[in-house]
Amino acid sequence: GEDVEQSLFLSVREGDSSVINCTYTDSSSTYLYWYKQEPGAGLQLLTYIFSNMDMKQDQRLTVLLNKKDKHLSLRIADTQTGDSAIYFCAESGFSSGSARQLTFGSGTQLTVLP
Amino acid sequence: EAGVAQSPRYKIIEKRQSVAFWCNPISGHATLYWYQQILGQGPKLLIQFQNNGVVDDSQLPKDRFSAERLKGVDSTLKIQPAKLEDSAVYLCASSGTSGRVTDTQYFGPGTRLTVL
């Protein structure tokens, strides 16, 4: 089945840029997503990118997509302590059912040090 | 606008007992999802409803899990009987009227289940 891989941990200093990477296997993915999960909370959609795009920018967030290598990254500029959370990459693809579903990676724990 | 509501927030049961979780989606959202998130992993979809019909339940362990959304609004997920490996956070999400994958899914805070 589809697989989404992420590194587990990332630490950065406040004010630096963070780059979280993700690889996926489903070549039929149409959309790729980044979600943020803070402790004890549900998932919050940060941004998504259509598979025919290679970059999308939204304020401090920049998403880069290399479709040939099936590699997705999320760059957070000027990282703040409030950005500390788990970040999930997700791709849309067809499950064994009839509808497109989201497949999530295991998440990257971002720690922002003062 | 109120978000997705879930209850209870925490539940501790012994194996072989039964448990039920409740979800109230955002008003007007036709699509409702139940996910299982095991510690250290990303959420895994269990079942997806469009109004009161099941769109996909291919990853729901039907020998012990059941879910319903009788009036197309609230939903209940039940586990009977529970196993140790069912310990996880159960997330409910809802999305807008079209059911397309690009519709933003709004997540509730989840129910953390511990099976002893």
Structure description:
- The complex is a heterodimer of chains A (about 110) and B (about 120).
- With about 110 residues, chain A is mostly beta strands.
- Chain A has no helices and 11 strands.
- Chain B is about 0% helix and about 45% strand.
- The radius of gyration of chain B is 13 Å and the shape is globular.
- Chain B is an all-beta fold and about 120 residues long.
- The mean pLDDT of chain B is about 90.
- Chain B has strands at about 5, 10-15, 20-25, 30-35, 45-50, 55, 65-70, 75-80, 90-95, 105, 110-115.
- In chain B, strands 2, 4, 5, 6, 9, 10 and 11 form a 7-stranded mixed beta sheet that branches. Chain B has a 4-stranded antiparallel beta sheet with strand order 1-3-8-7, with no helix packed on it.
- The chains are: A mainly beta (about 110), B mainly beta (about 120).
- The interface of A and B includes residues 41, 43, 98 and 101 of A.
Question: How do the strands and helices of this protein lay out in sequence?
Answer:
The complex is a heterodimer of chains A (114) and B (116).
Chain A: E1 4-6, E2 9-13, E3 18-24, E4 31-37, E5 43-50, E6 55-58, E7 61-66, E8 71-76, E9 85-94, E10 100-104, E11 108-113
Parallel strand pairs in A: 2-11
Antiparallel strand pairs in A: 1-3, 3-8, 4-5, 4-9, 6-7, 7-8, 9-10, 9-11
Chain B: E1 5-7, E2 10-13, E3 19-24, E4 31-37, E5 44-50, E6 53-56, E7 65-68, E8 75-79, E9 88-95, E10 106-107, E11 111-115
Parallel strand pairs in B: 2-11
Antiparallel strand pairs in B: 1-3, 3-8, 4-5, 4-9, 5-6, 7-8, 9-10, 9-11
